[in-house]
Structures are given as C-alpha cells and as structure tokens.
Automatic annotation (TrEMBL):
Keywords: Methyltransferase, Transferase. Coiled coil: none annotated. The lineage of its organism: Bacteria, Bacillati, Bacillota, Bacilli, Bacillales. This is 16S rRNA (Guanine(966)-N(2))-methyltransferase RsmD. GO terms for molecular function: 16S rRNA (guanine(966)-N(2))-methyltransferase activity. It comes from Cytobacillus citreus.
Amino acid sequence: MRVVSGTRKGKTLKVVPGNSTRPTTDKVKEAIFNIIGPYFDGGMGLDLFAGSGGLGIEALSRGAEKVIFVDMDGKAIQTIRENVKTCEFEDKVEIYRNEAERAIKALIKRELAFDIIFLDPPYKKQQLLKLLELINENNLLSESGTIVCEHGSEILLPDNVGKLFKQKHETYGIIAITIYKF
C-alpha cells in the first residue's frame, strides 16, 4: 500500500498487522480521489474506521490541511502513528482510539465541520446509515463537503439521508463507493 499522489506520492504505508482491518486498495483509493478531487486547497478531514490511515494520509498528501483519524483497534492506532510519521504529517493530525459513534459525539461538542469524511466501517458491522444520520443531524459536514462511504457491493445506501444526497455510486468487484454531498 502506498500514497498514490500529491506531496508524499510513492511513500509506502504499513498495513495493520493481522486480519482485523481491510486496507483500501491503491486502485480504489485512486478512483475515490478522481471522483472527489483529485486535490484539495486546505480543508479538514475525518477518517473514521481509519485502519492504517491510508485515506486520510492520501487527503493530506493531496492538500488537506488537517485530518482527524479514529479507530477502535490499538494496532490500527499504532499503524496510523507510524504511517503519519513516515509521511511527516505529525503536525497535521489528531489520532484517537475510540468507537465511531462516541467519536462523532465528541466532535459535535467541538463544533467542527469537515470538508471530507471517510466512512469505511467493517463490512460485517455495517452501520453507515446510522453514522450518516448522525453527521447530517449534527452538521458535521461543511456546506461544500463530501462524505465517502466504502462498503460491500451488496449494500445499497439510500439516495437521501436528511439533507445529504447521493452524488455517485461506483462498484469495484466486491467493494462499492457511495459519495454524499449536501
């Protein structure tokens, strides 16, 4: 796994040891950023279920100003720290070991709004709809922001979740990407 483009293009990223996480492939990562970007002029990102941190690090490499990484797995948190250090992004990140819903509630209290939110929960514990509802109800997405949902291709997400609407849906084998905006 590597950084596909931007200021850290080609940097190799470690994957989380074991099989508790499923890293986003370089092909899917490149497709995601071709849809949503491909580059950013600053902005704040949130990488929930961050795993190795590949999506958030890619956003930083492509110009995001800051990314908050959240994962419940201790090995994932350690891997994110190592990958952030490898890419020399320590001053542009916050890393938290927390459950996604609790993390969202903590972020609501900070009154933050994100320009890009990556949601890549474990496919077997699919909770995207609940998370999208929380993000919508609590205005965690900036007005021009984008939510990227990565999920199993058998999952079909609704066209609208409150004020959020499905902008795009693409399938890559067993993986699907659904993009939401206001």
